[in-house]
Specification:
Layout lengths: L3 H24 L1 H23 L7 H55 L12
Protein backbone atom coordinates (compact mmCIF):
# COMPACT_ATOMS: atom_id res chain seq x y z
CA UNK A 1 0.00 0.00 0.00
CA UNK A 2 1.20 3.46 -0.86
CA UNK A 3 2.08 5.76 2.02
CA UNK A 4 0.08 8.50 0.31
CA UNK A 5 -3.25 6.63 0.30
CA UNK A 6 -4.05 7.14 4.01
CA UNK A 7 -3.02 10.80 3.72
CA UNK A 8 -5.27 11.35 0.70
CA UNK A 9 -8.14 9.51 2.41
CA UNK A 10 -7.73 11.78 5.46
CA UNK A 11 -7.76 14.87 3.23
CA UNK A 12 -10.92 13.62 1.49
CA UNK A 13 -12.61 13.05 4.83
CA UNK A 14 -11.72 16.56 6.01
CA UNK A 15 -12.90 18.19 2.78
CA UNK A 16 -16.14 16.17 2.82
CA UNK A 17 -16.78 17.38 6.37
CA UNK A 18 -16.14 20.97 5.27
CA UNK A 19 -18.43 20.52 2.27
CA UNK A 20 -21.13 19.10 4.54
CA UNK A 21 -20.92 22.25 6.69
CA UNK A 22 -21.18 24.60 3.70
CA UNK A 23 -24.15 22.66 2.33
CA UNK A 24 -25.74 22.72 5.78
CA UNK A 25 -25.32 26.48 5.99
CA UNK A 26 -26.72 27.10 2.51
CA UNK A 27 -29.59 24.68 3.07
CA UNK A 28 -30.61 26.14 6.43
CA UNK A 29 -33.80 28.26 6.44
CA UNK A 30 -31.97 31.00 8.36
CA UNK A 31 -29.49 31.33 5.46
CA UNK A 32 -32.35 32.07 3.06
CA UNK A 33 -33.62 34.77 5.44
CA UNK A 34 -30.14 36.24 5.84
CA UNK A 35 -29.50 36.21 2.10
CA UNK A 36 -32.80 37.96 1.44
CA UNK A 37 -31.97 40.61 4.05
CA UNK A 38 -28.51 41.22 2.60
CA UNK A 39 -29.86 41.41 -0.95
CA UNK A 40 -32.41 44.01 0.16
CA UNK A 41 -29.55 46.06 1.62
CA UNK A 42 -27.53 45.70 -1.59
CA UNK A 43 -30.53 46.77 -3.69
CA UNK A 44 -31.19 49.78 -1.45
CA UNK A 45 -27.59 50.92 -1.81
CA UNK A 46 -27.60 50.40 -5.56
CA UNK A 47 -30.80 52.42 -5.85
CA UNK A 48 -29.18 55.18 -3.81
CA UNK A 49 -26.13 55.14 -6.06
CA UNK A 50 -28.06 55.04 -9.32
CA UNK A 51 -31.17 57.07 -8.59
CA UNK A 52 -30.01 59.87 -6.30
CA UNK A 53 -28.20 62.57 -8.23
CA UNK A 54 -25.14 64.15 -6.70
CA UNK A 55 -25.78 67.58 -5.22
CA UNK A 56 -22.10 68.49 -4.95
CA UNK A 57 -18.65 67.08 -5.52
CA UNK A 58 -18.51 66.26 -1.81
CA UNK A 59 -21.26 63.70 -2.42
CA UNK A 60 -18.81 61.62 -4.43
CA UNK A 61 -17.20 60.36 -1.22
CA UNK A 62 -20.57 59.34 0.20
CA UNK A 63 -21.49 57.63 -3.05
CA UNK A 64 -18.18 55.75 -3.16
CA UNK A 65 -18.67 54.65 0.45
CA UNK A 66 -22.14 53.33 -0.45
CA UNK A 67 -20.68 51.49 -3.45
CA UNK A 68 -18.16 49.88 -1.11
CA UNK A 69 -20.93 48.78 1.25
CA UNK A 70 -22.89 47.19 -1.59
CA UNK A 71 -19.79 45.46 -2.96
CA UNK A 72 -18.80 44.17 0.46
CA UNK A 73 -22.26 42.77 1.12
CA UNK A 74 -22.26 41.07 -2.29
CA UNK A 75 -18.84 39.62 -1.59
CA UNK A 76 -20.02 38.27 1.77
CA UNK A 77 -22.75 36.28 0.00
CA UNK A 78 -20.59 35.19 -2.92
CA UNK A 79 -17.79 33.90 -0.68
CA UNK A 80 -20.05 31.27 0.88
CA UNK A 81 -21.07 29.85 -2.51
CA UNK A 82 -17.47 30.01 -3.73
CA UNK A 83 -16.21 28.18 -0.64
CA UNK A 84 -18.79 25.42 -1.17
CA UNK A 85 -17.78 25.06 -4.83
CA UNK A 86 -14.10 25.01 -3.89
CA UNK A 87 -14.74 22.24 -1.36
CA UNK A 88 -16.64 20.25 -4.02
CA UNK A 89 -13.75 20.64 -6.45
CA UNK A 90 -11.24 19.65 -3.76
CA UNK A 91 -13.19 16.46 -2.99
CA UNK A 92 -13.33 15.60 -6.70
CA UNK A 93 -9.62 16.34 -7.17
CA UNK A 94 -8.66 14.28 -4.13
CA UNK A 95 -10.80 11.35 -5.28
CA UNK A 96 -9.00 11.42 -8.63
CA UNK A 97 -5.64 11.47 -6.82
CA UNK A 98 -6.76 8.53 -4.66
CA UNK A 99 -7.83 6.53 -7.72
CA UNK A 100 -4.53 7.28 -9.44
CA UNK A 101 -2.55 6.28 -6.38
CA UNK A 102 -4.51 3.03 -6.09
CA UNK A 103 -3.93 2.34 -9.79
CA UNK A 104 -0.20 2.96 -9.29
CA UNK A 105 -0.11 0.53 -6.37
CA UNK A 106 -2.05 -2.07 -8.37
CA UNK A 107 0.27 -1.76 -11.37
CA UNK A 108 3.36 -1.96 -9.15
CA UNK A 109 1.97 -5.03 -7.42
CA UNK A 110 1.05 -6.79 -10.64
CA UNK A 111 4.38 -5.89 -12.25
CA UNK A 112 6.28 -7.25 -9.25
CA UNK A 113 4.18 -10.40 -9.10
CA UNK A 114 4.55 -11.25 -12.77
CA UNK A 115 6.47 -14.43 -13.36
CA UNK A 116 8.38 -15.41 -16.42
CA UNK A 117 7.64 -18.74 -17.93
CA UNK A 118 10.31 -20.11 -20.17
CA UNK A 119 8.79 -22.61 -22.60
CA UNK A 120 11.95 -24.68 -22.85
CA UNK A 121 12.20 -25.21 -19.12
CA UNK A 122 8.52 -25.44 -18.31
CA UNK A 123 7.44 -28.80 -17.16
CA UNK A 124 3.84 -29.78 -16.64
CA UNK A 125 4.79 -32.48 -14.19
Amino acid sequence: MSERIPEIEKDISEKQAELHLWKGLLGHPAWAMYEKLVRLQIDARRMEICMVPLQSSAGVFTQEFTKGEASGAQLALTMVYAAKEAAEMDVTRLNVQLDQEKDNVASETSAGAASRVDDEHFSAE
